[in-house]
Amino acid sequence: MSRLSILVLVGLISHALKAQTPPIDLEWTALRWFGNGTGVITHDPVTNEHLWALQDDINTLNANDEVKLPFLPDGSDVAPAYPDRFNVGSLDHLVDLTVIDSVPYALMAHQNIGGVVQDQYWHLFAGAAELIIQSPEEDLLDVGLDMQVEADAIYVCGSSMVGTANNDRGRSIKTDLQGNVLWDVLWDPVGTDALGRFSSVALLGDTVVMAAFPLLVLFDRNTGTFIDTEDPAALTPPLQGDARLVAGSDRIHWACIQGNTLHFGYWSFTEGATGGGGAFFQTYATPPAGLDVVLGENGEWWIGTTAEGQGRLLRVGTDADLLSTSTLYASITDLDFVNGKLSITGKLDATNPTSYVLVGTPQP
Amino acid sequence: MRTAITSALVASLLPSFLQGQTPLVPVWSHTWPYGQEGSFNSMPWRDNHVAVDPITGLVHVTVDDEFEVASTRWDYLFTFAPDGIDLTPAPPPLLGSPAPNPMAFPANQEGTASLMARDGKVFHARERRNDTYGNVGSVHCHENGPRWQLSLGRDLFGSSDARLLVDEHGTIIFRRTQDLNFGFFALDPNGWIQWSRNFTGMLEFDCAVIVSNEVQAVREGTVHRLDRTTGEPLGTYPVLANQPITEISSNGTDLFFCYAGGNGSITVEERTISGDLVWTRTVSTGPPDDGNLPFDLEVDPAGRPWVITQLGIYVLGSDGGAEERFVYGARINDVAFSEDRAYITGMLDNAGNTTYLIAVDMDLTTMVAEQAYEPALVLYPQPASTTVYLQRAGRVHSARVLSISGQVISTLGAPFNRVNLEHLPVGTYVLELTTDQGRSTHPLVVAR
Fold it and tell me: What angle do CA A137, A143, A146 make, to 5 degrees?
């Protein structure tokens, strides 16, 4: 290949990857003047409503400071002044939300400021049922980080403290849809490069996959029995950080932030690890913050984060090939993909707590 | 549903009391036997708007479906070619959102707050009454059907209408946001938010305009300048204090401000983009309660400001000089321009049961520019240091020097042919004259 050809090719690649408006036909956007980047967007597959949850940190509506705002598929604001409200205490916040046939499944964090030790713990709401998750030894810190609701069960993950030194453990719990515990496991990272927490959970057949980067930690779906660990990035030094996972048909797609760099790739039982290094990362001038990954259509997947004061949306192909990078004026904190449409939520700008959610159809 | 009526018929509707003023004679017109029930926030012009697409030349009109004959979506969008041919699909596009919760959204408590069009896209801002929870606002883009929409949430006070500005870069939306804040949002033509700017405080922005690469917006006698591209603040300048500014408009380079006086008068000013006064003019209208309050100001392609009241339109010369009042014998709700025509919409009757749209050739109004404009006043020298001389045809009844904030600094005595400036600090002042033609104000610059 001639030097000119190489230059032309590089130019084309640079153009293709140039930051730009997302390759999405935008259909609707909603704004609220609170939330401060706490938004979670989900979709009820039965009612076909989009549910946008926000922390009403200016208490415009009620002392119950979490609100769940429903939108019709065309963006009609169904109940702008009559949203569902919920909370579990003064220092609570919503971690993750799924709604099926109007039944909410919510993972929330809570800090008990009234205790001698300001204990932190999880709350899992399965409809009307509530499961409080604390460490085996009380008054220690427990943090819920992710939830996956399947047809027959709920999988949540996070961390629990079990002692006073090197005491963080990855924790994963499976419950039925009524919040009854089916199994509850702790995983000790000692001897590995992993942090002591499961930052994300995904399901691959009969295997529950937890992210404790640089490792994936595998458990049996039915029993919670530890199976093995995998290194999906295979980088040296190891890739440590709170990764996000999403399951494809036979792959676990992942993204992880380390320093100023966003790494991504996939792992499967048959193919092993792909990604992390090589062309499978994006580096920014400032450390990215917030991270989510969703599976799109035709094997594509989407990564959202915030860097250099802008939302960053990555469109990734089947083989973790980077198809496009885009910027948003706003930050990105959560993604959802349903019925061929991508939903994005975050904080509108850095100077005030305004939150946004938008929904659009990816262009071919 | 719709009927076309002839110009002759329209002319015959002109009531006799309007004789002596220039009637607007349409080159084409349409009417609809419905339009506005007038119950929503008592704003008769809420639903009925007209906009001209400067690229396609198409004329778009929103009309309230007060009987909800088509659905619970509440407004129609009609489209006309410049020659009056009705291009509206059958059935016409419906605007507004269905009411999924009748408890939350009383029937027909929703309307079009603003309408704009550009390059095949029609943008409309909507407000929905939401019981005791104020208004719920949204902005929608149509392009051969719904294209995108933006939900703005509620304004608890229900006092703010979302307003739109449109140019080749997209849309500027401004509205009360959180109950105590006010927001400006810039969207590209595809609906992506480019920037936002939040202002705290109870006070609302009365109006805003895009001029050059700026958005200029007025609140409480102060004009706030924002960079059109980034939303960054560029500073402020004061305008006439103690008078609410009804509207602001632009000829592309300068700004025009319209104030409603409480005594049945309207003051119009032209200012440069940095706020320097070019001219000011006060026009006597009539009792405010009789529909003479101005609610809109538009600048036509010839650079002439049009002040719109419900009863008539006052067209001034581009230099603030000549003036003519045009009437149609019906309530006026909105005006928009193409290069050669003005399109006017409103209600033919007070009950609001018949909506009209008329197209008027600009030729009708060229008399305003062609009138021999006798300079109202020559002030010389300008700037002045100790004395400025007045030369004016006609009788002057009284004269005062005001600060630019409207405070009276001195009252002149007859024969009103000079102003002593020795006691005035360097700066810009306003000379107010009362003559047989009414009150007028003129910039007075003191420099040493």
Answer: 135
Please report the domains of chain B, with CATH numbers, ordered by start residue: 378-446 (2.60.40)
Lowest-pLDDT choice from A127-131, A219-223, A298-302, B21-25: B21-25
CA distance B14 to B10: 7
Phi, psi of A247 (to 5 degrees): -95, 130
Contacts 24+ apart (CB under 8 A), A163-167: A163/A137, A166/A190, A166/A196, A167/A140, A167/A196
Which amino acid is located at B360 in the chain? V
Greatest Cα pair distance in chain A: 72
Q: Is A349 on the interface with B (CB under 8 A)?
A: yes
How far is B158 from B151, CA to CA, in rounded Å? Answer: 15
Report the length, in residues, of chain B: 448
Neighbours of A190 (CB within 10 A): 8
**Does B229 contact A at CB distance below 8 Å?**
no
Task: State whether residue A155 is helix, strand or coil.
Answer: strand
Say whether residue B4 is in contact with chain A using an 8 A CB cutoff.
no
* Interface membership of B141 toward A (CB under 8 Å): no
Q: How far is CA B44 from CA B40, B113, B266, B307, B310, in A?
A: 8, 11, 21, 18, 10
Closest Cβ opposite residue A33 in set B98, B150, B178: B178
Torsion of CA B50, B54, B56, B61, to 10 degrees: 0
Task: Write the residue in B97, B130, B193 that is nearest to A330 by C-beta.
Answer: B193
pLDDT band at B391 (very low <50, low <70, confident <90, very high): low
Contact B191 A26 (CB under 8 A): yes
SS3 (DSSP) at A8: helix
Whole-number Å distance between alpha carbons of A361 and A341: 5
Reported as a single tens digit per residue, the pLDDT across B373-382 is 344 466 666 6
Mutation target for B interface from A21, A27, A33: give the one with most B CBs within 10 A: A33
Within an 8 Å CB–CB cutoff, is residue B52 touching chain A? no
C-alpha neighbours within 13 Å on the C-beta side of residue B19: 3
Cα–Cα distance list, A121 to A22, A134, A157, B133, B269 (Å): 37, 5, 12, 36, 64
Q: Kindly state the helix (H) or strand (E) to which residue B93 belongs, with its residue range.
A: none
Residue whose C-alpha is closest to residue B266's, from B290, B287, B241: B287
Mutation choice for B interface testing from A24, A26, A50 by most B CBs within 10 A: A26
- Alpha-carbon distance A104 to nearest alpha carbon in chain B (angstroms): 20
Average the pLDDT over B304-313 and give the result.
Answer: 89
User: What separation, in Å, do the N-terminal and C-terminal C-alpha atoms of chain B show?
Assistant: 69
pLDDT in tens, B66-121: 666 555 557 899 999 999 999 998 878 888 766 555 455 554 567 888 999 999 99
Nearest to B267 by CA among B290, B300, B241, B289: B241
- pLDDT by residue (tens digit) across A329-360? 999 999 999 999 999 999 998 888 899 999 99
Whether A352 and B198 lie within 8 Å, measured CB to CB: yes
B133 neighbourhood in chain A, CB within 8 Å = 80-82
Inform me whether the C-beta atom of residue A52 falls under 8 Å from chain B C-beta atoms. no
What are the sequence ranges of the domains in chain A?
A: 88-188
Residue A165 per-residue DSSP state:
S
